[in-house]
Each structure stands twice: as structure tokens, then as C-alpha cells.
Amino acid sequence: MGRKTFISLLVMLLCLSSVFSMTAMAQSPVQDPAKMWTRSPYPLYLKDTALVKAEMEEARQLAGDDWYFLQLQRLQCADVDESNTVVQTPGSNNNDAMNPNGWREVPAVPTKVFDNVYYVGGMEVGGWIIDTGDGYIMLDTSYAYGLDTILLPNMAKLGLNPAKVKYILITHGSLGPNTADHSGAVKYFCDNFGTKVVMSASEIARSTPGWVDPKLVIEGFTGKTLTLGDTTITMVNTPRTAPVNGVIGGGLSYFIPVKIQGKRHMWATYGNTGINGPLANIQTYLDSMATFLGYVDSLKPDIAISSHPFVDGSIRRMEIIRECDNPRTRNDLCGPHNPFLLGETGARRYFEIMDQCAVVRYEREAAGLPANGLGCPDGYVLERIPFNADGTAANPGTPTGKCVPKP
């Protein structure tokens, strides 16, 4: 082989190596700070029954090898990942002592996702702005502390005026001094701009009376529509807990028309990510999903996005949008389609995965297993921090992470 030929081959190999490395980097999922709580801290054992395993396998088959669907399936089903670690959703990052680890939500990079839709929320909890041409509709509002640390700064970076928010749609969460992740900043918009807030009847019933002007609160229900400017949104009531004192807990799901490169598409978001026991609650969740899927078949959404962006890879998708909007960072993932566009079949598959994971959760509950299917082997129990001799302890009863023989 001649010297020139050898040098040419070497250069070609180096170039190919660079391309492969850049592609691999582009395909690597972004490290999401919200995932700091997604893994079980305890070295326990998966105790799923044969029926649970069969239902889990059906959920895995629905997800296939699509990274975004796998992300959704593993989190919703509390399934194991490649490292054989059970994947779980984050704990509470609430406004009060409910947050034992002191971790607070952090802002995501604000992003123009569609022609008329902007993401202004955090890494864990969503915050979306739909520009209708006649004012904004906001979907969820983060925590109360997130107003000044997440929402307003992110809106400012995108040039969005908070005074133009005419309506806020709440997926779930009540209003009051201890509001949680989706409805925390509602009071600011209502008090300062007369923004109206849409909630389910059950969440209105759970809210603190007078926390916001009751004339600004709109009850959402199945089939109700809301029109502002060129946008008409359809609502579906999707409770997730069985009645307690006559009140069914849970929220609203929404079908929102959006534009991508001037073309109309339909975005669907389900009102409840978490699946909570006991069995009656999980059955309510399954019933709600059945109603919702009927609307999916009728309205034919081709976009499905969770109200929690870490659940379905939304953080990564937005990163791809920003990369592809910048000529200097365009890569092999920058195709002709928006990464959130799943098609009608893909969007339905997304919600079928959520539905199947609720079946997994139901069967675990019915078998007496925890939500993640983890436990100590037979004859062992989870060791807990004992009380001191004087009856005190820093964190009495807290699991140590060890399985010890039953006493």
C-alpha cells in the first residue's frame, strides 16, 4: 500500500469515527435531575407473581424498542431497566415539610415546541403555554415556589407576557396554601391578571374556599370545550381515586389542537400520571382510562405528552428541537418531523401503555405487593431504624435498606 493511499484511508477512518461518536452523543438521553429519585434505594427483591409478570410483559411488548415508549412504560409500570434496577417516579417536591429530602424542582430550558406552544416548566412538573392569537392558555403551573424560580423566568426568556394568560388548565391538584405540583402558581395569575382556572369538580371541592376569586374558577367535565382565539380545547374528566365522602379525586385530561409548520395536529395529555392504591382507586383509574381512550379514538390525536416531562422523554425531545433549530448543532436525529409527533397509531399506543401499566399495578395490589413489586425474600423483613433507649430517634422507623431475618 502506498503512503498516500494509507494516509487517505487513515483520514477516512478518523472522519467516520467522528461521525459515529457525534451520532452516539446525539442519541444519548439527557441526564435529567428529576431522576435522582427514580430508583429504589433498597436492595430488595422483585416478588411479582406469574400473573403480574405476564401483564408486565404485555406492557413491554407495547413499548417495543422505542426509547420514549420504554421510558414511559418503565416509569408507569415501575419495571426494571437494563441494570435490573426498578425504576420509580420522584417523590414529593412540595412546598412544605412533605418533602423529606429538601430537594426543590429546577427549571428546564424554555423551548418553543410547536408553532404556537412553548414549554416554560421544570424538569419534573410541566408548564405549557398555548398561544391562541387572542391570549394564552397555560397547562399546569408548577409548585408555588416555582412561580419565581421557574415559570416567570422561563416565560421572560421566551418573551411571553404573563398578563396574556387568560386561562389555566389544571390536570390535577387543588387550590390552597398547601397546593402541590400542578396548581401552585394559580393564585398569582388569578389575583394579578384575572386569569380563569379550569379544574374538575372534585378538585374544586377539595380546594380552600376563597383562595382565589370563585368567579374565576370554571368546572371542567367530560365533553366540555373551551375556545380562545383560534384554539378549541376538549376536556375529559379522568378521576383516579374512588369516592371518599362522596368526592372522587383526580383531574381533567385535555385534547389541544396545535400547529407544526403551519399544519394542524392534535395533542392529548392525560390528567393523572400516578396510579394509587387501594384496588378501588386503581379500578377508578382504569375506568377513567377507558373513557379517555374513547375520546382518543374519536378525536384522533397524533401527539401525546405527559404533564411530567421526565416520564416520556419530553426533556430529551425538547433538547433535540433546540439542537435542530441551531445550524451548528444539527445532527442525524434532525429529520423532517417534530420529535413529539407520534402519529395517530403511536399516540394511541402511548395511552395503551399507560392503561396496561395500571393493570400491572392492579395485579400487584391484588397480590398484596407494593407498587414497585419489591420486598424482602421469604423469612426476612426490612430492617428499620430503632428508637433510642429514651424513646427518641432522628428518623424512627425509617428503612435502613437491609433485609434481616424475621425475629
Task: Summarize the structure in short.
The chain has 407 residues and is α/β, with parallel strands linked by helices. The chain has helices at 3-27, 50-63, 67-77, 146-157, 186-193, 201-206, 279-299, 314-325, 343-366; strands at 45-46, 111-114, 117-119, 128-131, 136-139, 165-169, 196-200, 217-220, 225-228, 231-239, 250-260, 263-269, 303-304, 374-375, 380-384, 399-405. Strand 9 (225-228) and strand 10 form a beta hairpin.
Features:
alpha/beta; seven-stranded mixed β-sheet; five-stranded mixed β-sheet; 9 helices; disordered N terminus
Q: Please give the largest β-sheet.
A: 7 strands, mixed
- What would you call the structural class? alpha/beta
Rough outline: globular
Number of helical stretches of at least 4 residues: 9
Query: Whole-Å distance between the termini?
Result: 76 Å
Identify low-pLDDT runs.
3-42, 96-100
CATH homologous superfamily classification of the domain at 111-307 and 336-350 = Ribonuclease Z/Hydroxyacylglutathione hydrolase-like
CATH topology of the domain at 111-307 and 336-350: Metallo-beta-lactamase, Chain A
Number of strands: 16
Q: What do you see in this structure?
A:
- The chain contains nine helices and 16 strands.
- α2 runs antiparallel to α3 (67-77) and α2 packs antiparallel against α9.
- The N and C termini lie far apart (76 Å).
- It is α/β, with parallel strands linked by helices and 407 residues long.
- Among the domains are: 111-307 and 336-350, Ribonuclease Z/Hydroxyacylglutathione hydrolase-like (Metallo-beta-lactamase, Chain A, 4-Layer Sandwich); 376-405, no CATH class.
- It has a seven-stranded mixed sheet.
- The chain has helices at residues 3-27, 50-63, 67-77, 146-157, 186-193, 201-206, 279-299, 314-325, 343-366; strands at residues 45-46, 111-114, 117-119, 128-131, 136-139, 165-169, 196-200, 217-220, 225-228, 231-239, 250-260, 263-269, 303-304, 374-375, 380-384, 399-405.
